[in-house]
Amino acid sequence: MTRGELTTFVEALGLPKYRADQIFRGIHGRRLLGFDQMTDLPKALREQLDQAALLSTLTVESKYTSSDGTRRFLMKTTDGRPVETVFIPTENRDTICFSSQSGCPLKCDFCLTAKLGLLRNLTAGEIVEQIIIVLNDVYGGGAETPHGTNLVAMGAGEPFLNFENLIKALEIMSDEHGLFIVPGRVTVSTAGIVPKIYEFAKLERRPNLAISLSAATDELRDRLMPINKRWDLDELLTAAKTFEKTLKRGERFTFEYVLLGGVNDSDEHAEQLVQLLQKYDLRRAKINLIPHNPAEQLDYHPSTAERVLAFKQTLETLGVSAYVRTPRGRDIYAACGQLAAKDVQSASFSSLNAVNRAL
Ligand code: SF4
Questions:
Q1: DSSP state of 353
Q2: What are the two backbone dihedrals, phi and then psi, of residue 55, each rounded to the nearest 5 degrees?
Q3: What pLDDT, on a 0 to 100 scale, did the predictor assign at position 292?
């Protein structure tokens, strides 16, 4: 619930309005996951709230820590759907990569999450709770986050197919009485749900946008990201241009490009990419190059380090800013495109299959 909704809820229980602020601060400021922990409320009220509402809905099933410090959390909803969240520490800031859906309906050919299919959209509460659970695990319950936190909606799912819940969750998380993670610290990544890019462009307080591209021709993108058959490159880049026009001074946006060895990583592909950006006059776009993260069941392999560098240099020589995203947490299946409710120890799809069987 937003603070406004919580106020309505509290008033409907016959309680004064200030209780709503207290409860909101307890959940989102102190990151408490049980009414019984809100010791600033009378005991009778805590019991009343326990009867009337469910505060926490996710359970952490397992947690893996990578040799690089990345932590991957495998959670479950009350109806048994898997939710994955990844904590990525870096020197200057920490990033939490959260999921917007359980599974994903899109069928990007290089992504392990795609194998799950869509299980269901996550609620706004389930999105916010992922962040609370991770922050508590990393820093301790309610403790200050030393570096501030950036959020990326790049876990399982296509955020723009769960648009309302996502926007509501972001509104709740940006509240200054709670987590206070402002939209500028959040990046939402879409595979190209074009109508929602237009809708997103109209939002007043909105996060940063990343568009996953991964191919500069329709022929290749149709194969790698079948969503391209619904909205092709022309429609996608036209929407991106409309979005670009709404950027404020100094703001930029991102195209993500997963580099797949021998598939989309030649100099010619880099040149095609630059030509595409030029055709739509996209001057404020930067390219994030994501070396593919390998996984069994996927027919792709990563580009060599030399190829990644050469691709980047071709883009830069032609005037496009490009950055290489260092893969994190590959050893625990926490890296991009690897989130598929996978149990690390088994090194197989047993848990994924178990999930599918259970459904
Ligand atoms: S890359 Fe993203 S949009 Fe594509 S299938 Fe995977 S989770 Fe879904």
A1: H
A2: -90, -40
A3: 87
Mean residue pLDDT of the chain comes to 91
**Percentage of residues of the chain with pLDDT beyond 90:** 80
Compute, in angstroms, the gap from residue 16 CA to the centroid of ligand 1: 45
Residue with tokens 């049980």: 34
Q: Mark out the alpha helices in the chain (DSSP H runs).
A: 3-12, 18-24, 43-52, 124-139, 163-174, 194-201, 218-224, 233-245, 267-279, 305-317, 350-358
Q: Which atom of ligand 1 is nearest to the CA of 158?
A: 3
In order, the DSSP letters of 110-123 are: T-SGGGG-EEEEPP
Map residue 281 onto helix, strand or coil.
coil
Ligand 1 midpoint to CA 12 (Å):
41
Among protein residues, the one with the nearest Cα to ligand 1's atom 3 is 158
pLDDT digits (tens, 9 = 90+) for 182-196: 999 999 999 999 999
Distance 5 CA to ligand 1 centre (A): 32
Atom of ligand 1 minimally distant from the CA of 225 = 4
pLDDT by residue (tens digit) across 113-161?
898 999 999 999 999 999 999 999 999 887 777 778 999 999 999 999 9
Give the active site residues: 84, 336
Ranges in the chain, pLDDT < 70: 332-359
Q: Which residues line ligand 1 (CB under 6 A)?
A: 104, 106, 108, 111, 113-114, 156-158, 191, 337
Which amino acid belongs to residue 168? Answer: K
Question: In terms of Cα–Cα distance, which of 154, 16, 172 is closest to 86?
Answer: 154
